[in-house]
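no rush on this but wanted to send it before i forget. theres a chain ive been looking at and ive put its sequence and its fold in token form underneath. please have a look and point out which stretches look like helix strand or loop to you. thanks a lot i owe you, the record is right below:
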Amino acid sequence: MSDYLNYIQLISGICAAALIFAGIFISVKKLNPEKYETIPVKTTVISTALIIAGLLCYTLTKTCTNMTVVTEEQYELGTLYFASLEEVIKLFGFIVFVPLLFRLFKPKSHRNAQSEEAIAEETEEN
């Protein structure tokens, strides 16, 4: 059984890293200060969902780590999973809010930048 746990742990760890990276990458890719646009809501929701799926996969990794012969006899698998989920949320739960933070930090509008440059040029001329 421990051989299978190692394989499950390895596969779920790789999937967790890939999903979390993909979720953050999608948000960062849409973050372009030259276009002066905010990140679309659809992109933010997809990014958040990918990060949550990645954290759930990482919870499976932590469950396999926490599963030993002693705990296997005392606790059920569901109990171990929810205990691991609590541990993962305490440590890495803030990552879920990264796409939301990218959306909240709106770049300055293009018009404001142009008007500030025009005002600066006028004051230099006078």
